[in-house]
Specification:
paralog of FGE (formylglycine-generating enzyme); 4-stranded mixed β-sheet; binds calcium ion; 3-stranded mixed β-sheet
Length: about 350
């Protein structure tokens, strides 16, 4: 049985809309830290020197070696990222970039795998949804034509029939010539299936943050304390008036091909922005209060007070929809979350290997 919230999502938003930009602006609203980039369901730094090397063998091709160590995890800026606490992780290898359409296509070609967004919906899983609305699809960001309240994500998320990893924005848009774009519209189950096929696994939240910090002093952003670096946007996020007007200062309205922005000191690309990345940990807002110090792997159960009863996993790094105006969860140490069977066009993943 899927959660109740997806049912509301279906009832509210099933549509065949395609993306359209417009020139309307939204009213700025206070305190963006209260917003957490909600995508409707289904829908240390201890300055320890850490070395990394690029893989030379085929087994670790496209991955970088991350030497384990101890760091300060979390952020005082977000309630669910408190307290900042000391954590140690082991050595691991990490994909240097988000999994791409080309890589995911190889997996699908080899296995015949069908993603959750492409599967028929079972009436028993959605007993309150009319049969004519039980159509395969997924959540697509659609800029509203008018300024809207930032408190209602359904103003800019549409459940689009036919949206999938092959058609991230809907059936009329494909991934032809987008081999190096990060794959999106993949839910947790899909990401785990890919990782297993590739002989890898999803990173723990601690591994992900350790790799994103890359041995740097804890700052507001993974890259430092200033929003820009030498007047340049260092990641694919959102500039302009969210959600109606994207001013495209970083050059991208949706995903950017992987490696479009500079890597971090470990040689990892797009750890900030571009697409959210699934982690293996279940999500609880209070986990850091009791998280073990050594190699934490997440709580044994999931709980989100925003949607009690819905199983969620952690997502990290923010996406091209994050900004200082709305969702600031691309900032260092912040956390995201998503319902296990939900996907969207700003959500992907990368893998690790022991
Ligand atoms: Ca952008
Ligand atoms: Ca990312």
């Amino acid at each position: 049985m899927r959660s109740a919230f997806p049912i509301l999502f279906f009832l509210a938003t099933v549509s065949y809309q395609t993306y359209a930009q417009n020139d309307n602006h939204v009213t700025k609203q206070a305190n963006p830290s209260h917003h957490s980039c909600k995508v409707p369901s289904r829908t240390g730094a201890n300055n320890r020197m850490v070395s990394f090397v690029s893989a030379k063998d085929s087994l670790h091709k496209g991955m970088v070696f991350i030497k384990g160590g101890t760091f300060l995890m979390g952020s005082d800026e977000f309630e669910d990222s408190k307290p900042v606490h000391k954590v140690s992780v082991r050595d691991f290898w990490m994909d240097e970039h988000e999994v791409t359409n080309e890589q995911f296509a190889a997996f699908v070609s080899a296995t015949g795998y069908v993603t959750v967004a492409e599967r028929a919906l079972k009436p028993e899983d959605f007993p309150d949804v009319p049969a004519d609305r039980l159509v395969p699809g997924s959540a697509v960001f659609t800029a509203p034509k008018e300024k809207v309240s930032l408190n209602d994500p359904l103003q800019w998320w549409q459940y689009v029939n036919g949206a999938s990893w092959k058609h991230p924005l809907g059936p009329e848009r494909s991934i032809v010539n987008k081999a190096n774009d990060p794959v999106v519209q993949v839910c947790y189950e899909d990401a785990v299936a890919y990782a297993k096929w590739a002989g890898k696994r999803l990173p723990t939240e601690a591994e992900w943050e350790y790799a994103a910090r890359a041995g740097r002093k804890n700052g507001s952003y993974y890259w430092g304390d200033s929003l820009k670096v030498k007047s340049q946007w260092p990641a694919n996020i959102f500039q302009g008036d969210f959600p109606t007007k994207n001013s495209l200062e970083d050059g991208y309205d949706f995903v950017a091909p992987v490696k479009s922005f500079p890597p971090n000191p470990y040689g990892l690309y797009d750890m900030e922005g571009n697409v959210w990345e699934w982690c293996s940990d279940l999500y609880r807002p209070d986990y850091y209060k009791e998280s073990p110090t050594d190699n934490p792997k997440g709580p044994s159960d999931s709980y989100d007070p925003d949607e009690p009863g819905v199983e969620k996993h952690v997502q990290r790094g923010g996406s091209f929809l994050c900004s200082d105006q709305y969702c600031i969860r691309y900032k260092a140490g912040s956390r995201g979350k998503g319902e296990t069977s939900s996907a969207s066009n700003n959500l992907g993943f990368r893998c690790v290997r022991d």
